[in-house]
Design brief:
The chain is 41% helix and 21% strand. By secondary structure, the chain is α/β, with parallel strands linked by helices. The protein folds into two domains: 5-125, 3-Layer(aba) Sandwich (Rossmann fold), CATH 3.40.50; 133-226, Arc Repressor Mutant, subunit A (Orthogonal Bundle).
Length: 234
């Protein structure tokens, strides 16, 4: 089985070396870049399985690079873990909203980092089915990672896509925020409950022009469910 290839983008040589050694000991192949431009070139040319991306980079910031990668169809599916000294909740929300799959604050333990990487790789490679899922005109194609509403393309971020995929394959059941975090983000990833609400709002906004936002229902005192039935106020 081929080794997973991880790209480290960080302008601090000591950080890159520490992470690279830990990754190699964990049987990963390692690529390195000290700025966003070089990192972007490596991503396009060598297609790493995951990117460890520092927020604070010279010239182009890591958050801006993440935004560009997720906007480009050719790189949007590359998983990203942000590595940063910015520990405030709003910074975490910002990183996740641009499409990062996880967010780790410095200083961090290499054991935790390896665990997070493995969790993200498991999620990114887990495509339970290749068959398109269709619910009353809302269609999700897991092969092309495209969403359509009555044959009209629907644009949404990778996290919203994963949320919708989970909902469409687990209909008519209420899930708590904790359950959604475990199922969509993975049990080894620390994400605040508030983040779920942010992505639910973004998912509804993407579906709203097609009147499918009604399927994403709030269950008071519990969390959320996907249902084609009219929600009853509680």
């Amino acid at each position: 089985m081929a080794k997973h290839r991880i790209l480290i983008i960080d302008d601090e040589p000591a950080i890159r070396e520490m992470v690279a050694v830990a990754l190699e000991l964990a049987d990963f192949d390692v690529l390195e870049a000290d700025n966003a431009q070089r990192g972007h070139e490596i991503i396009v040319d060598q297609r790493p399985d995951l990117v460890l991306l520092d927020w604070m980079l010279p010239s182009i910031s890591g958050i801006e690079l993440a935004r560009r990668l997720k906007r480009d169809d050719t790189t949007s599916e590359v998983p990203i873990i942000m590595l940063t000294a910015k520990s405030e909740e709003d910074n975490k929300i910002q990183g996740l909203e641009v499409g990062a799959d996880d967010y780790i604050t410095k200083p961090f333990s290499t054991r935790e980092l390896i665990s997070r990487i493995k969790a993200v790789l498991r999620r990114s490679s887990a495509g339970a089915t290749d068959k398109a899922i269709e619910v009353e005109g809302l269609c999700l194609d897991p092969v092309s990672h495209r969403i359509s509403a009555n044959d009209i393309p629907v644009d949404m971020g990778p996290t919203e896509y994963r949320l919708l995929e989970f909902f469409m394959t687990h209909q008519e059941r209420a899930y708590s925020r904790t359950q959604l975090l475990d199922q969509v983000w993975g049990g080894n990833v620390y994400v605040e409950d508030r983040t779920i609400d942010v992505h639910i709002r973004r998912l509804r906004k993407a579906l709203e022009p097609h009147n499918f936002d009604r399927f994403i229902q709030t269950v008071r005192g519990t969390g959320y469910r996907f249902s084609t039935k009219t929600a009853v106020a509680s």
